[in-house]
Amino acid sequence: MTRRYVALGSLAAVAAVVAVVLLLTMGHSSEPGSTAPSPATPSASTPRPVTARAPSPTRTRTLDATMFSARYPASWSVATAQRRGAVRYQLSSTGKPIDSLDIGPAGTVGVTILEAAPSRVVGAFSHGIPALLPLIVGTPRPAEGVTRTAAPRAVTLDGAQAAEESYAYMYSGRENVQSDVLVRRGDRLVLIELDGEPAAARSAEGAFEALMRGWRWR
């Protein structure tokens, strides 16, 4: 294209100038119409209706226990075990088994719920639920770099007095975050523990919070 324009000489130069002028004129005259939306057409910055953007609700199931009921994601699995009057429920985000230390394999978030009768020693401290946590809750012995990320504090669970605390540590070469909620209900103790790698635990926080909000005592 360039060689052809050079060969045409001055006539090509004049035509090029005229073309540039026309293009500039057309560009300025059409710019307002191309960027300003008509009143009937929403602009790109106009938010869409919430109903169009809202995700579909997560399907849930109900865990019906002797002392309580709670809802959890339908995609999670539940394993139940009983021993010496205690009942343990283990919820797994991937369906993979949770070990005896309440920790699942890589990428799995585990929620363990334990119903148990308090021992005589624990009963001596029953007047203060936060004081029970060091006696009931612990971290795995092989854990390294154990840090208490949240000190025991008083909370409530469906109207019942409770206490919670959190830890972070390395276990089997993986980071693990552990959150515990302990409740005294009549002559029974209920411990709810969340375990998982930081990224996986963060992704499951919504499900864990929903489980706690939907918790109902019988």
What does this structure look like?
With 218 residues, this protein is an alpha+beta fold. The chain has two domains: 54 residues, no CATH class; 159 residues, Mog1/PsbP, alpha/beta/alpha sandwich (Protein Transport Mog1p, Chain A). The protein has six helices and ten strands. The protein has a seven-stranded antiparallel β-sheet, sandwiched between helices. The chain has a three-stranded antiparallel β-sheet with strand order 1-2-10. Strand 8 and strand 9 form a beta hairpin. Helix 1 crosses helix 2. The longest helix has 26 residues. The N and C termini lie far apart (85 Å). The N terminus is likely disordered.
What is the topology?
Elements: H1 2-8, H2 10-35, H3 50-53, E1 60-64, E2 68-73, E3 77-83, E4 86-92, E5 110-116, H4 120-123, H5 129-136, E6 144-157, E7 160-171, E8 174-185, E9 188-196, H6 198-213, E10 216-217
Antiparallel strand pairs: 1-2, 2-10, 3-4, 4-5, 5-9, 6-7, 7-8, 8-9
Helix pairs in contact: 1-2
Short description:
With 218 residues, the protein is of the alpha+beta class. Helices cover 30% and strands 37% of the residues. The protein has 2 domains: 1-54, no CATH class; 59-217, Protein Transport Mog1p, Chain A (3-Layer(aba) Sandwich), CATH 3.40.1000.
